[in-house]
Amino acid sequence: xxxxxxxxxxxxxxxxxxxxxxxxxxxxxxxxxxxxxxxxxxxxxxxxxxxxxxxxxxxxxxxxxxxxxxxxxxxxxxxxxxxxxxxxxxxxxxxxxxxxxxxxxxxxxxxxxxxxxxxxxxxxxxxxxxxxxxxxxxxxxxxxxxxxxxxxxxxxxxxxxxxxxxxxxxxxxxxxxxxxxxxxxxxxxxxxxxxxxxxxxxxxxxxxxxxxxxxxxxxxxxxxxxxxxxxxxxxxxxxxxxxxxxxxxxxxxxxxxxxxxxxxxxxxxxxxxxxxxxxxxxxxxxxxxxxxxxxxxxxxxxxxxxxxxxxxxxxxxxxxxxxxxxxxxxxxxxxxxxxxxxxxxxxxxxxxxxxxxxxxxxxxxxxxxxxxxxxxxxxxxxxxxxxxxxxxxxxxxxxxxxxxxxxxxxxxxxxxxxxxxxxxxxxxxxxxxxxxxxxxxxxxxxxxxxxxxxxxxxxxxxxxxxxxxxxxxxxxxxxxxxxxxxxxxxxxxxxxxxxxxxxxxxxxxxxxxxxxxxxxxxxxxxxxxxxxxxxxxxxxxxxxxxxxxxxxxxxxxxxxxxxxxxxxxxxxxxxxxxxxxxxxxxxxxxxxxxxxxxxxxx
Length: 602
Fold this sequence. Notes:
Rossmann fold
């Protein structure tokens, strides 16, 4: 008798069930700030279960709690030395934290923080889950810092008493003002919710003179007007990150990298990415490589006739540039070996793209096996939650990205800011970078999913599995000299991760480790006080030097690393020539163009 084959479930009920699942998942995501509650629960369970069956570890932690408690007690009641150095933790830098009872609160908090940092480390827990537990525990402990609360912060109490309560009143007024603005923003129409930027684009920032000479669906290409009598023959293409507006590299005139490079005799072009909307949901990584980077290179080659160009990529723009450089190098190798291309599709069009005279990567990861704090938000379940969220809009909102970056550095960007604004009543001193930071951008649904899945989750580029137009690429094929810049306090692209490009390439590589963070370390104009950097170079055939060993050996230089970059580029440039003219027939509009001015509430 033949076995009974169950009939498939009708499509309609399946769709209804899927809608129900999506609604439940969306509600759970809302309650956990856009994160996957399942991923968080799994991480906590992994840690708790392993700790529960580790009585030895429990005893070690109990003993450590006793030691830290005694240490905190002694610190709270020990006399303060006259030559005692200020606390390295800026939250407790005020001398008033050395007086009782505030020193007791400080020492108790530090002991709690130290204990939890050790408690989150339990043998057997997966590295990803351990990282998640450590990160979110740290966020919770930081939120409970005595510096965040008015009655336990001596600086807040002293400023209030000295001002007759005026700082408290100002802080409360600012708090109520912020709350009312948020309420109005929720009720207002979208066009009314978009507030003007403190530094207007094209008026206060992004003011280096130039012309938009190329435009497609994804980018505008800006060519800047030369300011020197002669220029280096190789144009310089800058590829900024599409996660941000390009003018992070063209802020006010005094701290514009673009203006600086133009003044150094370079013919500078920069990519201005379009701020996508729901109609761009199907734009993928291949589109960003082809229409973004390669089309820009082809346009420069067509308009200037230059056979070789310098290239510079920042953050994700640097990752894009590295991939394109590898694809171009592969094409050159195939041509040299007379290897027929097996596919009709060919992203790297022979003769259309110039040769790369150099490649500069700023805070750009190419190996994502150690992505730092961002790795907390990336696993299969969290990507599923993110895809479900983006499927409703067709993009990842700028607000969501800005919130993630704030969360990565919540101590400075959330808690310390709230203390200054609401407890101390201090006015925020706005600057061009803060204004740029508020000018958020979106990412298309498909591109963002592919980026996180292929690079962050599967590390496809470093493992040799990433493909451009169907052909595998490897950074090992790059023969152009590299300058790679990391920043010391980078929460987005940790410098040891950036440094690992030494494992993936075999060409001249100059590595720079600059003081500062992901943005402030890159925007490091000459003349700025307290700037420094380390720099060292290796040639083709170099071996591996551990990052910590590199730090111990690399020379330290005072000043801006921009000057070192300029010298490095000039050493790889030809004899100066007359500046190329900008063809009026190719000019579409004046810089900064149209795309950079497109803004959305979300």
